[in-house]
Backbone:
């Protein structure tokens, strides 16, 4: 997707929000910043000196469809509303209003699957069920990776963690 196309979708996201009386900021940089480092975040909204800049991950810019990119930009645009720097009740009510008005699916946390792009992050850990053998990939440490004994598989089995490459499995 070209920069012009992405910038157009940012303007569209802001216009759609204003059309349903969501008070998005008038000080949003019209050019979306393409972030080539972030591999886990799809979008980000930065505030500096009262102005907002929306970032989009390079992977989504390259592989994402129109709708996925619009949803992520709309998610970030809602963060420019007063009292919406986090995903609190006000942000969520605006997201619901957008979703209801336009059939979007703006979420607090997007997933690779929901956005229709491939998860290319390196798998570092596998959480393995000793009962059913289910293997859950994890890209980074988390409470589950650090303390698998505190959790159970959906089947009720005990979980353990393997580092990627252990036991000859890749
Ligand atoms: Zn957010
Ligand atoms: Zn299991």
Residues:
């Amino acid at each position: 997707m070209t920069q012009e196309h992405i910038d157009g979708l940012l303007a569209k996201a802001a216009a759609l929000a204003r059309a349903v009386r969501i008070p998005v900021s008038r000080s949003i940089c019209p050019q979306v910043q393409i972030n080539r480092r972030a591999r886990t975040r799809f979008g980000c909204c930065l505030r500096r000196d009262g102005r907002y800049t929306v970032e989009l991950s390079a992977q989504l810019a390259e592989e994402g469809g129109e709708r996925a990119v619009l949803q992520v930009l709309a998610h970030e645009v809602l963060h420019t509303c007063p009292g919406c720097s986090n995903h609190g009740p006000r942000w969520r009510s605006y997201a619901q209003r957008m979703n209801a008005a336009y059939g979007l699916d703006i979420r607090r946390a997007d997933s690779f699957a929901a956005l229709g792009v491939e998860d290319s992050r390196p798998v570092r850990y596998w959480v393995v069920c000793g009962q059913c053998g289910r293997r859950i990939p994890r890209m980074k440490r988390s409470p589950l990776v650090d303390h698998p004994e505190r959790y159970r598989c959906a089947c009720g089995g005990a979980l353990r963690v393997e580092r990627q490459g252990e036991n000859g499995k890749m």
About this structure: Residues 75, 79, 87 surround zinc ion (ligand 1) (CB under 6 Å). Helices lie at 3-19, 58-63, 66-78, 89-102, 112-115, 143-146. The chain is about 35% helix and 20% strand. The longest strand covers residues 51-57.
